[in-house]
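lol ok so funny story. i was supposed to be doing the assay writeup but got distracted and ended up predicting the structure for this chain instead. priorities right. anyway since i did it might as well share w the group, maybe its usefull for someone
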Amino acid sequence: MQNLAALSRAELIGALLAPVLPKDHPHADQVNDLESAYFGTAAVAAEASDTLLDHKLGVARELLMRDLRAQLSAGPVMNSPQALRDWLRLHCAGLQHEVFIVLFLDAQNRLLSAVEMFRGTLTQTSVYPREIVKSALERNAAAVALAHNHPSGSTEPSRADEFLTQNLKSALALVDVRVLDHFVVAGDQCASFAERGLI
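and the output, tada:
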């Protein structure tokens, strides 16, 4: 599998629009014809379709992630809440384990970088405030937005989530870094701590 992040936009678009099979493949004429692939030669199409579909979906996801990231970098992150939620949902899509993401922001709340800082199990992730403070200082961040996913499918923040958020808020305040929000992502849902009055 290619490292899609290393490809240029033009290469990604080319991969998305490329034929299903190379022209020299024995069944290329049958499978590359969309009608044939959809209505006939099912066995041949099935052989390539799962791998190809996964690859093309990965390419489309990479293109969407880049476009959303560009939107987030263009202006204050919280001015594009839908783009942020879409980016988080795409980032966490299909993960069977928890991840903890920190979006580092400049003084105008523009995105400096988005980092998946910690990875956990199905139900929990160990988060180290010291590492987040260190990363914020390295990037000269003025603010952060936090996010993590719940593979269980529930966006309801746990008591541990609330406690962690308050600890991170206190630790980051010591170095003049504001916590703007904390998002919980579950499937196609994305809940905001700020909207719930938890920050």
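Residues 34-40 have pLDDT under 50 and may be disordered. Residues 42-74 form the longest helix (33 residues).
back to the writeup now i swear
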